[in-house]
Design goal:
Number of helices: 0
Strand content: over 45%
Number of strands: 29
Radius of gyration: 24 Å
Largest sheet: 4 strands, antiparallel
Order of helices and strands: EEEEEEEEEEEEEEEEEEEEEEEEEEEEE
Distance between the termini: 54 Å
């Protein structure tokens, strides 16, 4: 159940709303008016989340998220399928749990039955509806790292939200569950940090004993295997982060351009060049395999445009792949391709 313009109730058979007669409160004396709003059915084991004036509900098969929102045109609640353009994310797994981040951005987190964490950027006022997936662990395949639960709480300062997860990890030290928090200042998983006087040995790494760990010591990336709970650095450092590495991959959708013959979908395309705009990009970013030289960014600037000439010939997709395998940050603000469409 959730409170909106009326009391919304999800059952395994349909979604209904209940409101008191003539805008009065529901009470034993005021029999509520019951209206059927949808017939998809709700997953009674997965609690819905409310984002603005919309309610996001997991349907009973666990493979679709419906947006329940009031429509002035229909004078009632309407349901919209939020997964219709991302149904490949739900083919072999179902949604177990949902949680909502409100600050600094609106994001819905969905734990999938195979241990993958789906992130749903959702902002109806700005027409933002975008899905992505998060995997953790050295293999990056949800085998040695499974998300089992997620919860969102306000941060200590109260200005943002924190996403806390329960993760089952299969490491050299054995299979264990960890309570971890997403931290935008870190670029490794299951990490420990140190800040203080210069040290040459980082202790407290027993949880990653015998595993390949990525270390960032004073801004320098190192690959190390903890032994006896310790990691030895090449040189002393005052700020150290050590954890499991992960790969960030962004791949654009197939281009659909208007042409005299209709859409360019299915037509041959030549990707001539692409410009990718980065915000605060660290070392290691690549655009279709070519390394982004962050040293070319003007001093004092935080935004950089990287131009990549594409010599991949002709295909029917014209997609761009952006990757980051190093433990350094960065935000992709825009991808601007130059494309030629050919007949055939």
């Amino acid at each position: 159940m959730a409170a909106a313009r009326s009391l919304l109730i999800g059952t395994i058979g349909n979604e209904i709303s209940a409101r008191g007669p003539t805008e009065q409160a529901i009470s034993p004396e005021n029999v509520p008016k019951i209206i059927t709003e949808g017939n998809a059915g709700s997953d009674v084991t997965c609690a819905p989340v409310q984002v603005g004036n919309a309610l996001l509900v997991c349907e009973r098969d666990g493979r679709k998220i419906s947006e329940l929102v009031y429509s002035f045109e229909e004078d009632g609640i309407t349901a919209h399928d939020m997964t219709i353009l991302a149904d490949h994310l739900f083919t072999n797994a179902t949604i177990l749990q949902m949680a909502k981040l409100s600050h600094p951005e609106q994001v819905v987190l969905c734990v999938r039955s195979d241990g993958v964490l789906l992130t749903f950027a959702y902002n109806r006022r700005e027409n933002i509806v975008a899905w992505s997936r998060q995997v953790t662990g050295t293999a990056q395949n949800a085998v040695d790292g499974n998300y089992e639960s997620v919860a969102v709480i306000p941060s200590m300062c109260g200005t943002a939200d924190e996403a806390w997860t329960v993760v089952r990890r299969v490491l050299t030290a054995g299979s264990k569950r960890y309570v971890e928090v997403f931290d935008g200042n870190l670029n490794t998983d299951c990490a420990r940090t140190y800040a203080g006087t210069a040290i040459g040995i980082l202790t407290g790494m027993n949880h990653l004993e015998g595993d390949d760990a990525m270390v960032v010591a004073d801004g320098v990336a190192l690959s190390r295997v903890p032994a006896s709970g310790e990691i030895t650095l090449d040189v002393d450092a005052v700020a150290v982060e050590a954890g499991l590495p992960f790969t960030t991959t962004i791949r654009t959708l197939r281009l659909s351009l208007p042409t005299a013959r209709g859409t360019s979908q299915g037509q041959k395309k030549r990707l001539n060049e692409v410009i990718v705009r980065f915000l605060c990009a660290g070392l290691g970013w690549r655009v279709d395999g070519e390394l982004v030289d962050t040293h070319l960014r003007p001093s004092g600037e935080i935004v950089q445009d990287f131009r990549r000439e594409m010599r991949l010939g002709v295909d029917r997709e014209a997609r761009v792949t952006i990757t980051q395998t190093q433990p350094f940050p960065g935000t992709v603000l825009a991808v601007m391709p130059s494309v030629g469409v050919e007949d055939g």
